[in-house]
Write a structure and sequence with these properties.
Blueprint (H helix, E strand, L loop, with lengths): L6 E5 L2 E8 L4 E4 L8 E3 L22 E6 L10 E7 L6 E7 L7 E6 L5 E3 L8 E3 L6 E5 L12 E5 L6 E5 L5 E5 L2 E6 L5 E2 L2
Parallel strand pairs: 3-4, 9-10
Antiparallel strand pairs: 1-2, 2-3, 5-6, 6-7, 7-8, 8-9, 11-12, 12-13, 14-15, 15-16
Length: 196
């Protein structure tokens, strides 16, 4: 007759093991009132993995992940979170992937099997590696007082040629060099050098 129907499955100790809310078009696991299209709720006060994804992928470079598609940017997927096997058969690492104009998903940020973080590279060899491919690479530090545009704050730059580097204070202030918790050299905003 076209009326909305709810559906509920009970289990031992859980009256809301699976709930289909026909009126709101939502599915709940562990809850009678799902908060989203799919809502998984646990009442335990202890730490736990509420959602557990498992795959039979067993080769280096195979992955298990979740993909996302939104209403802009062409055909999806537009983003993904993936866990890859590698670099050896006993290791794994995690990547965030995005795409431009609905193109191929690219690993943009990675945490490898020993905790190294890579931006622009899936295989960082140091604690933090930023790889801007053939372009000049920048690391920028800003706050609410400096402003947050590309012309604000402090930048560390590696030139696109890969051989020249700059430390850039884009604000009207000094740069200090410190060792042993003591400032040793100061470059004022006018370029003059001094020792504190």
């Amino acid at each position: 007759n076209g009326a909305d129907r709810d559906f509920r499955v009970e289990s031992s100790g859980n009256a809301n093991m699976l709930v289909v809310d026909g009126g709101d078009n939502r599915v709940g696991i562990g809850t009678a009132s799902p908060d989203g299209k799919l809502s998984v709720t646990s009442t335990t006060v202890n730490s736990e993995d509420v959602l557990y994804l498992k795959s039979g992928a067993d080769s280096v470079a195979d992955y298990l992940g979740m993909a996302f598609e939104i209403g802009v940017g062409g055909n999806g997927p537009h983003g993904a979170v993936r866990v890859y096997g590698g670099p050896s058969g006993n290791d794994s690492y995690m990547s965030l992937l995005t795409t431009t104009d609905g193109g191929t998903l690219v690993q943009q940020m990675t945490i490898d099997h020993v905790g190294n973080v890579g931006i622009g590279t899936p295989s960082p060899q140091r604690d933090l590696v930023v790889n801007s491919a053939g372009s000049s690479g920048y690391i920028q530090l800003v706050n609410t007082n400096s402003g947050t545009t590309s012309s604000n704050g402090l930048e560390i730059k590696l030139d696109s040629g890969g051989a020249e580097a700059d430390i850039i204070n884009r604000e009207n202030g000094r740069i200090g060099l410190w060792t042993n918790n003591t400032e040793r050299l100061r470059i004022a905003s006018d370029g003059s050098l001094s020792t504190p």
